[in-house]
Amino acid sequence: MKLNIPIKPILLLLMLLVVVLAMSTLAQAGEVKNKLVIQVSTDDPRTQKIALNNAANLQKLYGMDNVVIEIVAYGPGLGLLTRKSGQASRVESLAMQDIHFSACGNTMKKVAAKSGNMPKLLEGVDQVTAGVARIMELQQQGYAYIRP
Predict the structure, then answer these.
(1) Does the 32-146 domain belong in CATH 3.40.1260.10?
(2) Rounded mean pLDDT of 90-101?
(3) Of residues 99, 35, 97, the one with CA closest to residue 73
(4) What is the 3-state secondary structure (H, E, C) of 29-62?
(5) Closest by CA position to 48, among listed 8, 80, 90
(6) What CA–CA distance (Å, rounded) separates 67 from 103?
(7) Which 3 state secondary structure label does DSSP give 114?
(8) Residue 87 in 3-state DSSP?
(9) What percentage of the chain's residues is helix, strand, coil (to nearest 5)?
(10) 21, 55 in Cβ contact below 8 A?
(11) Are strands 125-128 and 144-146 parallel, antiparallel or unpaired?
């Protein structure tokens, strides 16, 4: 018994599969493997400085193109990312060096309700809806987590 199987469609399918696999491999090769989220939830200046040092040192070790770092501040730690911070110039400098900063929107609303003024975030700082949720989302994306 002889089967009449058309060769051309099978060859086309195989070639398509090879192309898809090659594209997938290239996409993975461009993906940064080192990802870190740092939690800042304290107003202790020493702990905040340690968080910034951790970010700067890790970026120096791996290189800007080989690590993605995000510092998420909420609760009493939000002050690190405001104009009143003793580390304001350093935060803005690190933001220009591709270290990402996220301020908790929930905390900002609570501060505004108490003081009557919305906190003024530094240049390069993004606002997220909830700091804890942002940390969780980043961990789900494969980010390592530290809290100094």
Answers:
(1) yes
(2) 97
(3) 99
(4) HCCCCEEEEEEECCCCHHHHHHHHHHHHHHHHHH
(5) 80
(6) 21
(7) helix
(8) coil
(9) 55, 20, 25
(10) no
(11) unpaired
Tokens representing 69 are: 């770092």
Alpha helices in the chain (DSSP H): 7-29, 45-62, 88-96, 105-115, 131-140
Give me the pLDDT at residue 22, please.
Answer: 55
Q: Read off the tokens for 111.
A: 């501060």
In the chain, where are the structural domains located?
32-146
Residue with tokens 């700091």: 131
Token digits of residue 39: 């939690």
Whole-angstrom distance, CA of residue 32 vs CA of residue 38? 17
The CA-based diameter of the chain, rounded to the nearest angstrom, is 87
Mean pLDDT of the chain: 89
CA 34 to the chain's CA centroid? 11
